[in-house]
Amino acid sequence: MSQAIIYFGAALSVIWGIGHLMPTNNVVAAFGDISADNRNIITMEWIVEGVSLIFVGVLVALVTYVDPVNPVTSSVYGVSVIALLVLAVVSFSTGFKVKFLPFKMCPFVLVLSATLITAGWMS
């Protein structure tokens, strides 16, 4: 198992999650004059995706650090890869249609993170 590849995949997820959180106010403001409910829903979604990506990356890195050969670690890798791929599918079917480049990059970054974790796990 190549722990360095796993850590790189985990770090990519964390960095993308942090990058997701930073522009939250600007993203919500870009929707213009919308109701408070819609503003709260967009804010919530944006924060939830960022926190989810950070959580997946931190969890993968943590179990790798604690015991990279434990069966529970393998389960965490598997579930994390599935979660990243599900988020990639959602991003591809929604955000990929937006003309803003980071939205178009999102599915590819998530697939890359999942691929790196899988590659390190399977090696």
What can you tell me about this protein's structure?
By secondary structure, this protein is mainly alpha-helical. The protein has one domain (3-122). It has five helices and no strands. Helix 1 runs antiparallel to helix 3 (36-66). It is elongated, with a radius of gyration of 16 Å.
Q: Which descriptors apply to this entry?
A:
single chain; 123 residues; mainly alpha; 5 helices; 82% helix; 0% strand
List the helices and strands and how they pair.
Blueprint: H1 3-21, H2 24-29, H3 36-66, H4 71-93, H5 101-122
Helix pairs in contact: 1-3, 1-5, 3-4, 4-5
Number of H/I helices: 5
> Helix proportion of residues, in percent?
over 70%
Q: Main sheet, how many strands, which sense, barrel?
A: none
H and E order: HHHHH
How far apart lie the N and C ends? 4 Å
Output the radius of gyration.
16 Å
- Spans where pLDDT lies below 50 across 5 or more residues: none
Number of domains: 1
Please state roughly what percent of the residues sit in beta strands, choosing from under 5%, 5-15%, 15-25%, 25-35%, 35-45% or over 45%.
Answer: under 5%
Shape assignment: elongated
Give the integer mean of the pLDDT values: 94
Number of distinct beta strands:
0
User: Which class do the helix and strand fractions yield?
Assistant: mainly alpha
In short:
With 123 residues, the chain is mainly alpha-helical.
